[in-house]
């Protein structure tokens, strides 16, 4: 192992290289190495100034997140940075890659900062449930002002070098790919007195803009939606104006420690690592992905068009096949509109859009247009016969080795694969709506799917900037199977006395962006209705069924698209209002079953909803549909709006305690029967005093 921090002198300038792959995180060894290097610079007659830079692909990406939750070992980062700032000789930070969190804080403690044009900086701590804890909340406002500090610190966003220059965060932006050369040149200018450096901690922050802070608090309270760290971060930034620097630093530390001890921090760190761990699957270790240079899409409706745009945005050429000319035109229209939206939001240039439409995107009504395509994604109607027909035709024309994927939401991928002569090339790619926006991709592995086809699914997801989760074949895979289960729990509560509006409100208060009934209205009630009809024949006779949704659908109320569902919608509105007629339907259904409505507290609603979700998730893990509990967590976080700061249902269950969840399920199953019977895995883990997390380590 090489030294994580190396010291050398080049032409009178000390070069301090941080070398701790992969991202130069500030482990204890790096902190100690930096402290030692700065002390050495102070006493080194050969060096007039110093440069700190990152070896490899990046500057410092921040504290070593793996050390969180453990006792911190000295030297502490704020002290290391104080020593850098106090150094009598000028020290320059030379930034490339990403300078994030503690990495940017190190740079803010230096006397000047230069950045390559490709570099990005940011203080993403709030996204991990904490706040910048090494002076970021005190030095950034002094350097860049309160507005920029509030923006960067409460959002955690990454800022490109050019914007960082405008904000005063960096002193110079340099083209090229050699951060050290840029740093050396700047250090020389400082040593020669051609440029001046500053100690950020000594800058007068000026008077506090009370209105700005009040405004930011109000805005953040809304956007943070239950997450505490952005609000606490505002308190810390305010201390830069209310207190002298050293006291402000102490206040920051105090707030940092509070957040470090919070459940939200544990949930968000779990989410960070889980999103990276989901890619660790046996197939990716066993095989290399196939080459994918072109994509075919069959069906250009809601999903097909969105999938096409996701691929086009990632630079992949797409051929889209529809049934007839009219459908082709409609699909072209949707794709153009989605690209136009991208231009309007500044995500895409007009020139790039025009290039996509004229060069990268083509359409056809004849499957032969897909003969040379590397990977085809089918997104036609959710109907087994239609899908089988599509796959038979594809089998007839696709080149050898082409990957044939289905975007089915529920159907059996084994059965679809069996319609072809090459089931090893068939896989499920379950995208979420809108497909060019939603981050989740469930990669559904059928019995005969080849390992390199699975690996290709994960590689494609990365290219599309999505998170892939490996799922096995069952009705609804991981996500929709869970959705169906917790939706039933919600329906039971409605039949027993809760209103859909109270349930939605309780779950929004828990942290979901929308409640389950508002989500149904958005997705279209007809989709679930078709699913219920499809499953009616195979339904377990012990299962409790609720007829309310059927009664609503029978009236032709399918949600937002028809102007009413569970809610009433004004024309064009996305938010609805409670519908007394729906409440009357519910009352009639209760009466017909002889149910005397009871009241539910919001806590009871959340408890039942979560118990149903956790129990089904345990079954999904036990059956091997999900590889590990963390795969369930990422599915719910990236595809179903589960509040990120709660870590996902399995992490949430671990924090509640599995014995608590089990007790709730046993109580409910005594009261309401079969649906609530605890999953054997949950019973076993609870009996052993274990957690779901104990199953996350795969060897
Ligand atoms: N600590 C430990 N490991 C880290 C890490 C970190 N900060 N950042 C990344 N990794 C691991 C990651 O788990 C993965 O491991 C590998 O590095 C490559 O990452 C005092 C308290 C830098 C933009 O929040 O945003 O400073 O899976 O796959 O896509 O105020 O990683 O290979 O085993 O993500 O090129 C603030 C978090 C910390 C930055 C690179 N810093 N990292 O993205 O690679 S808090 C952050 C990222 C802090 C101070 C506070 C990204 C990246 P493995 P990757 P990438
Ligand atoms: P949609 O009705 O909007 O689009 C389906 C399209 O397929 C139509 O444009 C139709 O003309 C075309 N089509 C039908 N048969 C065809 C054929 N033989 N050849 C070529 N084109 C044909 O449906 P959608 O919502 O986009 O759903 C498509 C698939 O994606 C379904 O399997 C669905 O379950 C799945 N899915 C949907 C969602 C969602 O939220 N809508 C989410 C994930 C997955």
From TrEMBL:
Catalytic function, reaction form: a (3S)-3-hydroxyacyl-CoA + NAD(+) = a 3-oxoacyl-CoA + NADH + H(+)
Source organism of the structure: Stappia indica
Every 3-hydroxyacyl-CoA dehydrogenase NAD binding domain range: 295-471
Subcellular location: Peroxisome
Pathway the protein takes part in: Lipid metabolism; fatty acid beta-oxidation
Highest taxon above the source species: Bacteria
Single biological process term from Gene Ontology: fatty acid beta-oxidation
Keyword Lyase: yes
InterPro entries associated with the record: 3-OHacyl-CoA_DH_NAD-bd, 3HC_DH_C, 6-PGluconate_DH-like_C_sf, ClpP/crotonase-like_dom_sf, Enoyl-CoA_hyd/isom_CS, Enoyl-CoA_hydra/iso, NAD(P)-bd_dom_sf
Keyword terms, alphabetized: Fatty acid metabolism, Isomerase, Lipid degradation, Lipid metabolism, Lyase, Multifunctional enzyme, NAD, Oxidoreductase, Peroxisome
Domain 3-hydroxyacyl-CoA dehydrogenase C-terminal: 476-569, 605-690
GO molecular function term, any single one: (3S)-3-hydroxyacyl-CoA dehydrogenase (NAD+) activity
Name recorded for this polypeptide: 3-hydroxyacyl-CoA dehydrogenase
Signal peptide location: none
Family statement: In the N-terminal section; belongs to the enoyl-CoA hydratase/isomerase family. Belongs to the enoyl-CoA hydratase/isomerase family.
């Amino acid at each position: 192992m090489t030294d994580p921090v190396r010291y050398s002198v080049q032409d009178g300038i000390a070069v301090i290289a941080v070398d701790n792959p992969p991202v130069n995180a500030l482990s204890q060894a790096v902190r100690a190495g930096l402290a030692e290097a700065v002390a050495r610079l102070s006493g080194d007659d050969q060096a007039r100034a110093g440069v700190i830079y990152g070896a490899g692909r990046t500057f410092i990406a921040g504290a070593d997140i793996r050390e969180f939750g453990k006792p911190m070992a000295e030297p502490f980062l704020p002290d290391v940075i104080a020593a850098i700032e106090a150094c009598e000789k000028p020290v320059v930070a030379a930034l490339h890659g990403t300078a994030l969190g503690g990495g940017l804080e190190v740079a803010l403690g230096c006397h000047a900062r230069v950045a390559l044009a490709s570099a990005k900086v940011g203080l993403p701590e709030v996204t991990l449930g904490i706040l910048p804890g090494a002076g970021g909340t005190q030095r950034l406002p002094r350097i860049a002002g309160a507005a920029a500090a509030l923006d960067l610190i409460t959002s955690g966003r990454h800022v490109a070098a050019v914007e960082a220059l405008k904000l005063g965060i960096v002193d110079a932006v340099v083209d090229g790919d050699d951060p050290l050369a840029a740093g050396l040149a700047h250090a020389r200018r400082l040593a020669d007195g051609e440029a001046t450096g500053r100690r950020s901690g000594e800058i007068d922050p000026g008077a506090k803009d009370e209105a700005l802070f009040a405004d930011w608090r109000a805005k953040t309270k809304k956007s943070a939606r239950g997450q505490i760290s952005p609000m606490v971060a505002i308190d810390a930034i305010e201390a830069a104006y209310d207190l002298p620097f050293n006291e402000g630093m102490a206040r920051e530390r105090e707030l940092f420690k509070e957040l470090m001890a919070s459940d939200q921090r544990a949930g968000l760190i779990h989410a960070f690592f889980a999103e990276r761990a989901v890619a660790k699957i046996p197939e990716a270790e066993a095989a290399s992905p196939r080459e994918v240079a072109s994509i075919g899409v069959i069906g250009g409706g809601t999903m097909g068009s969105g999938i096409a745009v996701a691929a086009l945005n990632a630079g992949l050429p797409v051929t889209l096949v529809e049934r007839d000319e009219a459908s082709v035109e409609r699909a072209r229209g949707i794709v153009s509109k989605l690209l136009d939206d991208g231009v309007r939001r500044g995500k895409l240039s007009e020139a790039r859009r025009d290039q996509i439409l004229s060069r990268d995107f083509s359409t056809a009504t004849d499957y032969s247009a897909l003969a040379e395509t590397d990977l085809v994604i089918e997104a036609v109607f959710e109907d087994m016969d239609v899908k089988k027909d599509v796959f038979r035709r594809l089998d007839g024309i696709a080149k050898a080795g082409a990957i044939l994927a289905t975007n089915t939401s529920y159907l059996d991928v084994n059965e679809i694969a069996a319609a072809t002569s090459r089931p090893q090339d068939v896989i499920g790619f379950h995208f979420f709506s809108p497909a060019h926006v939603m981050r989740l991709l469930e990669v559904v592995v059928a019995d005969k799917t080849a390992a390199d086809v699975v690996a290709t699914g994960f590689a494609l997801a990365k290219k599309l900037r999505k998170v892939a989760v490996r799922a096995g074949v069952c009705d609804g895979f991981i996500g929709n199977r869970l959705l169906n289960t917790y939706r039933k729990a919600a329906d039971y509560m409605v039949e027993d006395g809760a209103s859909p509006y109270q349930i939605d409100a309780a779950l929004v208060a828990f942290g979901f962006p929308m409640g389950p009934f508002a989500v149904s209205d958005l997705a279209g009630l007809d989709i679930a209705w078709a699913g219920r009809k499809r499953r009616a024949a195979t339904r377990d006779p012990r299962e409790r069924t609720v007829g309310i949704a059927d009664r609503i659908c029978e009236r032709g109320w399918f949600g937002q698209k028809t102007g009413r569902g569970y809610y009433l919608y004004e024309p064009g509105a996305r938010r609805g209002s409670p519908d007394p007629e729906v409440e009357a339907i519910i009352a009639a259904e209760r009466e017909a079953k002889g149910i005397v409505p009871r009241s539910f507290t919001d806590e009871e609603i959340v408890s039942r909803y979560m118990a149903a979700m956790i129990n089904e998730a345990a079954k999904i893990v036990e059956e091997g549909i999900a590889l590990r509990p963390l795969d369930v967590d990422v599915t719910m976080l990236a595809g179903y709006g589960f509040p990120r700061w709660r870590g996902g249902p399995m992490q949430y269950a671990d924090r509640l305690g599995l014995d608590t969840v089990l007790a709730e399920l046993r109580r409910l199953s005594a009261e309401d029967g079969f649906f609530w019977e605890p999953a054997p895995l949950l019973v076993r883990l609870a009996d052993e005093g274990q957690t779901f997390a104990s199953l996350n380590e795969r060897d």
